[in-house]
Model the fold of this input.
Amino acid sequence: MSLETPVATGPPAQSTRRRKRSRSGSVSARLSRGDRIAVTLMVVVPTLLVLWLVWLPGILSVVLSFARWEGIGGIDTIEWIGTENYKNIFTNYPPFEPAITHNLIWLAVLFAIPTPLGIFLAVLLDKEMKGGRLYQSAFFMPVVLSLALVGFMWQLIYSRDQGLINDITGGTTDWYGDPNVNLWAVLVPTCWKQTGYVMLLYLAGLKAVDPSLREAASIDGASETQTFFRVVVPVMRPINIIVLVITVIEALRAFDIVWVVNKGRNGLELISTLVTSNIVGEASRIGFGSALATIMLAISSVFVAVYLRIVMREEQR
Done:
């Protein structure tokens, strides 16, 4: 007498859908009316704030970039001029070219100095050295400070009359005022702040690396340097991409430290300061400033789109 295994009568996909519906139904049944209201508010309120504070101003900036408007009067005072603002920016606006150059210099310096330095500090702190928590806090402290405050703090070093550098060297250089050196002077505290941020990101990535990978590389005879570049770095590819995108965005949106120094003039022109000076400056040109902001938004969107594409590809894998 043989025993036969009973065969399921319903299709597997149907039974799976039933189980999912039953689970979702049981979860919703466990939520009280107050819980559902709280969850709805947690979703709706942040969404409305993002639409109101981020998307709406962004869309209005793009729309107003095709107009001439001084911000005085109602909507009926807006004069639509097509792409004239963009033509003026590229052909008849002298500060635009140095602003682009300074943003590119900003980007290159952030890649060349704080990124490798942050990686180096992260590797050292990952070795569980004595006093590592203290060093980690000290390196991360500048990150929690605004760049405007950092700029004021470094005034104690850069001041022409009472600054530390001139006191030591006996010089009289106005580090924040001289257009030949003020950009490089501002980049020093910027790198000081950015290094701690990069260090924290890579330190978190190093903590997440599977120790068995390093052990296997060590057994195969790889040195510590070879293990880092051939095993650890490829594993931290998502962190590398995040640091890349963040560095580009930080270079494009650099503003506060330059604005508190001299409002982005006299050798410190950046795209962000040009936007602010045209929109809220003495001669308010909302349309022209919006065109500058749109250019800045377009450049940033390219890198954000690349980042999202890479992240989505990683999730699919």
Observations:
- The beta strands are 67-68, 79-80.
